[in-house]
Design a protein that fits this description.
The protein is an alpha+beta fold and 412 residues long. Helix content is 17%, strand content 49%. The chain has a domain of 70 residues. The protein contains 1 helix and 32 strands.
């Protein structure tokens, strides 16, 4: 009987223990669910908090953008001014943020603080200037000397054996020169030491006469515009020459070319290493390719082009505006041959500059500034005669080069 009682007691204890265990499991399960629910709510709260902060940041940035977009500046302050000395007959250009001056007697480079970085003397009758970003070359038309420099100093000079008709310079200082021989026109490539790197010749009966030339930033690709008169009509062509290892596989390094009847092409320019544009009297052409440029687009033009301005990103064509209240119209194209904006203005311009966020149309006495959506940002007269205007990448800040000062200005 004692054993039966012990057995019953043990069974009771076992059931009691099992009940307590089941209760504990239930409580643990409920606690775990409650914890998971709290974690989920916390994560959800944190997610919505982040979304809220981001939304506020976007709203703030949009507010700042639209405020900036709608701002129209009315005047400017000179925030810093430095005296400098420039020969009266010297011309002034922007050389990658430095001030480049040249005349018949020499050239020099000055930083925006008025400190002369370098100077070079020479004697030329008709100096021609060619610039590729920070590199500049000055040669004497019909002479035999070309001097090459960049913003840091003189790189070298070239002495040719025949009269110079035209030339261009690459970013690394390679100069491509059109030389006039008695029977043919020779095109030579020189390095900064004056060594001949390559050459080819053209004749009127074959290609025609070269009237424009340019090279890529690397100097490896050269584009030449030719004009040819035959049977009482005029035709033009654009030829591309590759002086890298790829071009060695082609005769005279000629890799591609395109012909145009009843057209004159006085402008052919590289936009970096792989995009080229050419302007004829009746069309605008784009080409692309680092080794063998191919035709990208041909835009026919019925109006007379007055001027051409460009940088690595944009090409601008200026036309007279016969209808409307303004004298001129500026059509701006990107490297994909797409028209990005159309501007109308009255300034008797001497320069048009494409900056990071602005298009500047200026004369020596006034300027107008637009953004790339065509919205006017500033219009006004300069307080002094301005020889050169250097953008800074900020639509409200510029550097003005007057006859005897370097001014940093802030629009307001």
């Amino acid at each position: 009987m004692a054993e039966i009682k012990d057995f019953k007691r043990n069974q009771y204890l076992l059931k009691a223990t099992k009940g307590k265990a089941d209760t504990t499991k239930t409580e643990d399960g409920m606690n775990k669910k409650s914890y998971d629910s709290m974690v989920a709510r916390h994560r959800q709260l944190r997610f919505y908090t982040i979304i809220g902060i981001l939304a506020l940041a976007v709203i703030f940035l949009l507010g700042v953008y639209f405020h900036w977009k709608n701002i129209v500046y009315t005047d400017y302050n000179v925030t810093q001014q430095t005296d400098w000395v420039r020969a009266g007959e010297a011309k002034c250009l922007n050389l990658d943020g430095y001030i480049f001056t040249y005349s018949n007697d020499g050239m020099s480079c000055t930083n925006t603080k008025g400190n002369v970085v370098w100077n070079q003397t020479y004697e030329m009758q008709n100096p021609i200037v060619r610039i590729c970003k920070k590199t500049v070359a000055v040669g004497d038309y019909n002479g035999r000397n070309i001097y090459i420099s960049d913003t840091q100093g003189n790189l070298g000079n070239i002495e040719t054996t025949m009269p110079i008709r035209d030339f261009c310079v690459s970013l690394n200082g390679i100069v491509t020169v059109v030389l006039d021989d008695s029977t043919v026109t020779a095109i030579y490539l020189y390095n900064t030491a004056g060594d001949l790197l390559a050459s080819f010749t053209t004749t009127m009966s074959e290609s025609g006469y070269p009237i424009a030339i340019d090279s890529s930033d690397s100097g490896a690709l050269v584009a030449v515009s030719y004009i040819k008169a035959e049977s009482g009509s005029i035709s033009s062509s654009v030829g591309f020459y590759n002086f890298s290892s790829v071009g060695q596989q082609y005769t005279d390094n000629f890799v591609s070319g395109y012909g145009y009847s009843d057209a004159v092409i006085p402008v052919v320019k590289f936009m970096g290493n792989d995009t080229v544009f050419a302007v004829a009297d009746n069309r605008l052409m784009f080409y692309q390719g680092k080794q063998k440029p191919e035709s990208l687009s041909e835009i026919m033009i019925s109006e007379e082009i007055q001027s051409v301005f460009y940088n690595d990103d944009y090409v601008g064509l200026v036309f007279y505006n016969p209808v409307g209240d303004t004298a001129y119209r500026l059509d701006v194209y990107n490297t994909k041959a797409q028209k990005v904006t159309e501007l109308y203005f009255d300034v008797e311009y001497t320069d048009i500059i494409f900056d990071t966020a602005s298009i500047i149309v200026r004369s020596d006495n006034e300027c107008v500034i637009y953004d790339f959506d065509g919205k006017l940002k500033y219009e006004g007269a300069f307080k002094e005669h301005v020889n050169c205007m250097i953008p800074t990448g900020n639509i409200a800040r510029y550097i003005l080069i007057t006859d005897d000062t370097i001014q940093q200005i802030q629009l307001y």
